[in-house]
Write a structure and sequence with these properties.
Order of helices and strands of chain A: HHHEHEHEHEHEHEHEHHHH
Number of strands of chain A: 7
Oligomer: homodimer
Strand content of chain A: 5-15%
Shape of chain A: globular
Structural class of chain A: alpha/beta
Low-confidence stretches of chain A: 87-94, 316-321
Distance between the termini of chain A: 40 Å
Largest sheet of chain A: 7 strands, parallel
Largest interface: A-B, 69 and 70 residues
Strand order of the largest sheet of chain A: 3-2-4-1-5-6-7
CATH superfamily of the largest domain in chain A: P-loop containing nucleotide triphosphate hydrolases
Number of domains of chain A: 2
Amino acid sequence: MQQLVKDLIQGNRRAAARLISLIENDDPQKRELLKDIYPHTGRAYVVGVTGAPGAGKSSLVDCLLQKMREDGLKVGVIGVDPTSPFSGGAILGDRIRMQEHALDQDVFIRSMGTRGSLGGLARATREAIQVLDAFGKDVILIETVGVGQSEVDIVKTADTTMVILTPAGGDSVQTIKAGIMEIADLFVINKADLPGSERTVTEINLMLDMKESDRWRPPVQPTITTRGEGIKELWDALQEHRRFMEESGQLMEIRRDRVRRELTEQVEYLVKNSIWNRVKEEISLDNLVENIVLREKDPYSAAHDVLAEINFFSESGKVSE
Amino acid sequence: MQQLVKDLIQGNRRAAARLISLIENDDPQKRELLKDIYPHTGRAYVVGVTGAPGAGKSSLVDCLLQKMREDGLKVGVIGVDPTSPFSGGAILGDRIRMQEHALDQDVFIRSMGTRGSLGGLARATREAIQVLDAFGKDVILIETVGVGQSEVDIVKTADTTMVILTPAGGDSVQTIKAGIMEIADLFVINKADLPGSERTVTEINLMLDMKESDRWRPPVQPTITTRGEGIKELWDALQEHRRFMEESGQLMEIRRDRVRRELTEQVEYLVKNSIWNRVKEEISLDNLVENIVLREKDPYSAAHDVLAEINFFSESGKVSE
């Protein structure tokens, strides 16, 4: 095992930071490092926090972080901003408020932005979670800005997902995005001192009651982070969901699904790598590209030709069409 | 060739609408249909329009659409909203304003939302462009809401990309996202009657002058869509960029790159399909998944085992590790 991973497991903060940077930069060593890290993971509980910009996610994460620390839990926070190309350090908007925790050795805070594709960001987040898990964090909070599908992909990694809304005011709750409704295990109505708060809570409860819920019925918790109101109740609800997940066997189930997805991705990664190495060695795509550009061939038939050329299909019938 | 594609090429609107729906729903027939469509594509010029919510994209697209119609061009408009799960028909915000064009047989307007992943949306958009191209549209306008990486992926398909900004007011232009700056061929400062307009134009021009531009220096055009101001100039600038792209050979170059990406994606699609069919036939992943869940194995080594099991690597050395 490499020294960096040893350092990580012994609780070296700089090793954790460095490993996450290597992951973000898609370092060639990444796979080997993750392989060494993997046996040391599986202990941390992952909580996803998502919501529209301005919903007060950071303040809420801050409040929860405090509660967790009071209970003696070691906490990692990953702030993910799919709209920002920046990453590293503490750049997310009001992350400055978290400075009090910055001196706390048992808290690790990190921001990640989109460097490459959004898909890449979701992957890097999953890998950063592994690092913080092996680093010994008990809980890992993933805070992500709500911008549609991207945050849905990111929070898929969470064991409990919290969706933060604010009182709808004049608006109807109907504007909640379809995908968001499905991923929420807990609803938080933050800034509950704003007008329309009670109506929003009622409306969401009604929406939730309309769905048949053989499993878990998400609670709807109003909070006012500025006064610390509702935080204890939220922390209780979060722990209750965790207990539910563990006792019902669903935690094991979603983690198994996640492992299956991960395995699938890794298989495809190896296959793609191998195929392209082979193609690079044996054929040039230039002529084929030219044929497609000139509409003499379509990309679908051309793809088939490429694979025929490297005998991908015919191999003693082993890999069939 | 299938009847639906024949109808499309003969200019049947319902065929166009139906084909785009099939694409969105990832219909099993999709690949065959796209294969038939492909030889009839390559004529349309694709213009991407992106910018933050509220920048006035729809109004601007509306104004440009009118100019294009005055020049006798047939136009397709695809409104892409990565934050919305909705699609079809005319749902995008103020798309209602476009109703005057709805009766115009030479205009085709369509909205697309994110059904599956964002990656899927970018792909579906590319495929919808192919449909409208074969349908006989001269220009295809892609209007997309700016939410970070996702719209960058979507406008990558455009031959000319227009970025719509509004006067920064108190803010500095610095907040323009890094990725956006790189993709813009034309900058539009819309709502140029708002305070700070001139300063915004100046600042962006300064930023553009700082970059060495051996190729194309994006112009910065102020517009006031409510009064139709700056639209003619914008349309001229757009045509000038098109001429530049054609005459410099860059249009051919970016289209070649696009074809290469498309071919790559298709090859990987075929390979993945083939591998998973093979895996499904021969081995069960359940035990392996269980081993990974229990940390007896890591996903990286397990992926390797899967491929070894189906003899992916060893095949007379044909596909090498």
